[in-house]
Write a structure and sequence with these properties.
This protein is mainly α. The chain contains 3 helices and no strands. Helix 1 packs across helix 3 and helix 2 (34-51) crosses helix 3.
Length: 85
């Protein structure tokens, strides 16, 4: 039971942390890397139009960056489990 709880709590915590960090990163990167933010906005607009979501581009930017950060979190979490065994 506890490995499932540990796994689930890791997912929930990663969503929270990655969403907060991605929102902060986007605010920090807007003035410094406008080309990167424009590219992210293009990808966000394309996804919004493909799925037909009633969501702003800024919110989708946060979701995309949080997904990338959560992927990285998951990779390192899996690697830490392999190292402990």
């Amino acid at each position: 039971m506890f490995p499932v709880l540990r796994h689930a709590s890791s997912h929930g915590f990663s969503v929270l942390v990655c969403t907060i960090i991605s929102a902060l990163l986007i605010e920090l990167l807007k003035p410094k890397l406008p080309h990167l933010m424009a590219g992210l906005a293009k990808i966000s607009t394309k996804i919004i139009s493909m799925i037909n979501l009633p969501m702003s581009t800024e919110n989708m930017n946060i979701v995309l960056l949080a997904s990338i950060l959560a992927l990285i979190w998951g990779i390192f979490f899996k690697l830490s489990l392999n190292r402990n065994n």
